[in-house]
Design brief:
By secondary structure, this protein is α/β, with parallel strands linked by helices. The chain contains 17 helices and 19 strands. It is 33% helix and 15% strand. Helix 8 (300-316) crosses helix 10 (359-377). The protein starts with a helix and ends in a 6-residue tail after the last helix. The structure holds acetamide and zinc ion (ZN).
Length: 561
Amino acid sequence: MKPFSLLLAALFVFAACSQPQPQAFHVIPMPADVTVSDGSFCVKGAAVHFDDDLDEASMGAVLRFVEAIETATGTQCKWDEGGMTFRVNPSLASEQYSINVTPKSVTVEASALNGFVYACETLKQMLPAAIYGKEAVKADWVLPCVSILDQPRFAYRGMHLDPCRHFFTIEETKRYLDVMTAYKLNRFHWHLTEDQGWRMEVKAYPKLTEVGAWRNGTVIKKDWGSNDGIRYGGFYTQEEMKEIVDYAAKRGIIVIPEIDLPGHMVAALAAYPELGCTGGPYEVWTRWGVAPDILCAGNEKIYTFLETVLTELMDIFPSEYIHIGGDEAFNEEMGIPWEHCPKCAAKMRELSIKKGPMAKHYLQNYVTARIQKFLNDHGRKIIGWDEILEGDLAEGATVMSWRGTAGGIKAAAKGFDVVMTPTDYAYFDYYQGQERDKEPFGIGGYLPLEKVYGYEPYNGMVPGSEKHILGVQANLWTEYIPTPEHLEYMLLPRMCALSEIQWCAPDKKDYARFDASLDHTFAILDAMGVNYSLDCRGLVGLDRIPARSPEELAQLEKPAW
Ligand code: ACM
Ligand code: ZN
C-alpha cells in the first residue's frame, strides 16, 4: 500500500471508532463467568474469519451476526484473518461458548450451533442497541475487552404461545422467535389446537381447518355467555409450519407442537362430530373456559384420528417431544359426557375400571398411554400438562407442571422428568401492574416482573429429585390478547426475567443488576420494533397498546376469574 493510502486507511479506522466508549456490561441473561478489562475492539469494518470445520448452521448464525454489523454500521466487514475469529472447540458442551475480546481481536469458540448462536447474541447485547435495527447508525461500534465462559443452568428453556384463542401470523410468530433467540431460549411450545380454533392443516382431515379453524364470535370481556358475533379464525398450512420449524432450528430453537387431548377438542368435534360421545352437533366454541365436550375415549375412531393427525404432525415437527395436552378434560359443573356414554362405559368395563370419582382419570390414563405408545413407537416422547399425573401415568412421560409447583414436585419425586411452568410465576397472561384500569384488559391474576424473576424452580423439591427438573417455561394464553403489540407487551420484559431463571445459576441472579440492564434491553426492543411493558418503571401500559373502549372499562367492574 502506498503511504498516502496507508494514511487514508488509518484515518478511516480512526473515524470508525474514534472514541471507543463501550457500554457497561448489560447482557441478559447474565453470562456465567465474565471478566471485563480495559480497552475495546472496533467491529465496524472488522475482518471476520471462521474455521473450515464450522457446520453450515453455525456458519449461518455467524453470517447473520456479521450482516447485522454491516447493516447497523453501514460498513462491509472483510473476510480475513486478524479480527473476529469463530472457532470450533469440541471440548465445549453444545450450548456452551467462550468469547475473548482484546483491542486487536475477538475470538469466539463453541462446539455446536447453539453455542455459536448464544455467543453472537451476547456480542450483540454488548454493542449499541442499534445492532438490532435495520438501518445504519452512527455510534461507538466497539465491544468492551472481556473474557467470557458461559453455559445455561437448564437444558429446557421454553416459551409457549397460544395462537388459537387469538391467531398470530407466521411473520408475527417469527418475531416471537427473534426475541426468544435474543434471550437464549431454546424451546418454542406451539399450542396448535383448542376448543375455539384448530390451527394445523391436516391433509387427511380437511374439515379440521375448513370448519374447525373458524368460530362465529369471540367472548366480550368477562361476559363468557356472550360473544361479538364476528367470525374469527385462521390456520397454518403444513408448509408454513415447516417454515417456522426451519426458522427456529437455525436459531437453536426446537418447536414442540401441542395437540391437546382428550379435552380442548371442541373445534375438532365441530368438524368431525362422530368423534364425540353424543355425536353432536357441535360448534367451534365461542366461550372461554373448560368445555364439557371432549373426544369419546370408547370410540376406536378417535385413535385412528389422533394417530393420523400425529403422523402428519411428526412429518412437520422433528422434535423428540410431542405435547399431548391432557389439561382440563372434565368440567364437573357442565357435566362429563364419558359418564353417560355407552361406548365409554364399555371401554371402562373392558379395562376393569371401577366406578367412582377416579374412573374418568383412569380412562384418561388409557387414552394418554395409547397415544404415548404410538409416539414412542415412532421414536418420540410425550410431554403433557400435570393432569396426566392423576391416576397412573406410564413411565417415560414428562410432566409440565402448571397448577402451581406441587404437581411438578410430586412428579419429580416419582421419577418423572418435569418442566416447571407454574401459574404463580410463569403465566404471562396475568396483569403486570396493580392498577388494572390503566392496563390492557386481561384474564386476571397479578404477576409483576420482580415476582417472575424471584422464581426458584428447586424450591420445595424432595432432595435428590432436582435432576428431574429439565427446565422452566412461561405460557402465554391469548383469550384477551388480540394483537401482536399486546402479545409483546405481555411477553416483555417478563421473558427477560424468565431467561435469567432458565440460564443463570442461582448465585448469579441479582434483581438490582438485572433491573439496571433493562434500559439497554428496552433500547434493543425499540431497535427490533418490538413492544414491551414499562410497568416496572411505573409507566402503566395503556399508552403502549391501543386505547380501551368504554365497554372494556365497564367490564373492569367485574371480578377477575
Ligand atoms: C392450562 O393452563 N390449561 C395448561
Ligand atoms: Zn364416549
